[in-house]
Amino acid sequence: LRTLGDCLRREKLRVARWLILSAAEPCTAPGALAEARRTLARLSRGSVFAVGTAGHFAELNRGRPAADRAGFVAYALAAEVHAHDRRTILENAWAAGWTVDEAALLYPGKRIEVGPVSLRPRQESPRPADPGGGPAAAVAPLPDWADPRQVSLFGACFTLAVVVSLAAAEADTVILFDAVGMEGLMESSAAPPRPEGFPSRAGQVYPLFHVLADLREAGEGVFAPCVVQGHPLLPALQCRSAGQRRILLANPGAEAVQVRLPSACHPRRCRCLDAAALAQATAAPEAFRARDALRPLRSQIIELPPWAYLCIIEEDHA
After folding, report:
1. Cα–Cα distances in Å, from 53 out to 26, 115, 286?
2. Quick one: CA torsion of 115, 228, 247, 111, rounded to 10 degrees?
3. Is the CA virtual torsion 78, 83, 88, 91 positive or negative?
4. Tell me: the pLDDT tens digits for 57-74?
5. Strand spans (E) along 105-200
6. pTM of structure
7. What is the pLDDT of residues 159-196, one digit of tens each?
8. In the 8-state DSSP scheme, what is residue 57?
C-alpha cells in the first residue's frame, strides 16, 4: 500500500473507486479495508472503497466480508464453471441476475458491482505477457481461461443475454470482459499468433464489441429488458434516450426465428450482425457501424438468422 501511495503522489493520479482484495484470502480480509483507507484516502479525496472477491458469488456468500464502511460490494461472474456447452452458458447468463438478488439480501442498501464477466473462470494469478510472436507463440496450447467462442457470433448473443439478466436484477455496475486479448473485446494490432483453435486476427474486433458499442451509444438512457412474444428465451433489451429508442435482440440458437416487433411511431433502421456480415463487422467496424450503413426496416415481422445480433434504431425527428 505504501508503494502504491508513493506512485500516486509521484504521478499525481486521482482514483475514484477502490476495490480492496486480499492476496491470501478468497474475499477481502478483516481489517484490509480500514488499512487501505488509512493509506490511500488522503490521496483520493471523495473516492469510494469497496470489498468483495475476485472469485464468483459463491466465494462472496461463503466469506461475507464486512461491508459497513464499503461503498459497494463486488464479485466476478463466469458462465463456464461446471460445464462448457452452449446451453449451460446461456442458462448461466440468465441466472446471473439471481446472484445480484442474493447479494442484495446479504448486503441491503449496498451497491452491487458484477465483474469482470467472462466465459471461462479467470485465472487468479497474473497471466504472462504476450510473447513477441514466432514459432513458440504459434504452437502454444489454448489456455484454460480462454474460449474460442469469445470471437464468435455466439459470444455476442451471450453478452446481450448476461446484460439483460443483470439489468433486470438492477445491478449497479457491470464490468464486461477485458479490453484487449483472448478474454477481451478485440485484438491489438500487435497481437501475437494465437493458439490453434482461437480464430482471431491482429487488429480485429470481436462480435461482442458491437453489443457494447450499441449500449454505449445509447448514452444515459433508460435500459429495460424485454420479453419477445413466442420466444421468451431470446435476449432483448430496449434502450430509451432523448429522441431515440433502440431495441437490441439476439438469437443464440442454431435455427432462424421469426419475431414480431412492437409497433413504431417513427421510421426504423437496423444493423444485423450475422454470418454474412461477420467479416466486415470484425475487420472494418467503423464501416459496419456507419450511419449510412443502416438498413430501413419497414415490417414488424423480421427473421433473425442463427447466432445473429440485431440493433434496431427508431428516431424521433420531431
Report:
1. 6, 10, 37
2. -30
3. negative
4. 999 999 999 999 999 999
5. 111-118, 173-176
6. 0.91
7. 999 999 999 999 999 999 999 999 999 999 999 999 98
8. H
